[in-house]
Amino acid sequence: MKITVNGEPREIAAATLGEALAELGYGEARVATAVNEGFVPAAARAGRALAEGDRLEILAPRQGG
Q1: What percent of the chain lies above the pLDDT cut of 70?
Q2: Which residue has the higher pLDDT, 64 or 30?
Q3: CA 8, 52, 24 angle in degrees (round to 5)?
Q4: Burial level of 59, CB count in 10 A (0-12/13-18/19+)?
Q5: Whole-prediction pTM value?
Q6: Per-residue pLDDT tens digits for 26-50
Q7: Full 3-state SS string of the chain
């Protein structure tokens, strides 16, 4: 299906957010996620279905000051 990941169009086979993170190479990385501008907590990713045209944002924490 076609979705947008961090502003870039992508084609993925995953049906859920959890599967999409694994497919995109994030696996068990500690990241924050949002689908269509709505925050999705880590515990809910496996059950969060994705649909054609969804907008996925993946944010990694940064350190420094």
Answers
A1: 95
A2: 30
A3: 50
A4: exposed
A5: 0.91
A6: 988 999 999 999 999 999 999 999 9
A7: CEEEECCEEEECCCCEHHHHHHHCCCCCCCCEEEECCEEECHHHHHHCECCCCCEEEEECCCCCC
CB atoms near residue 47 (< 10 Å): 10
Instruction: Name the residue among 12, 21, 23 with its Cα closest to residue 46.
Output: 21
- Could you give the CA distance from residue 39 to residue 12 in angstroms, rounded to a whole number? 20
CATH domain 2-59 topology: Ubiquitin-like (UB roll) (3.10.20)
R_g (Cα) of the chain, nearest Å: 11
Which is it for the CA torsion 10, 15, 20, 23, positive or negative?
negative
For the chain, domain boundaries: 2-59
Closest CA to 32 of 64, 65, 7, 61: 61
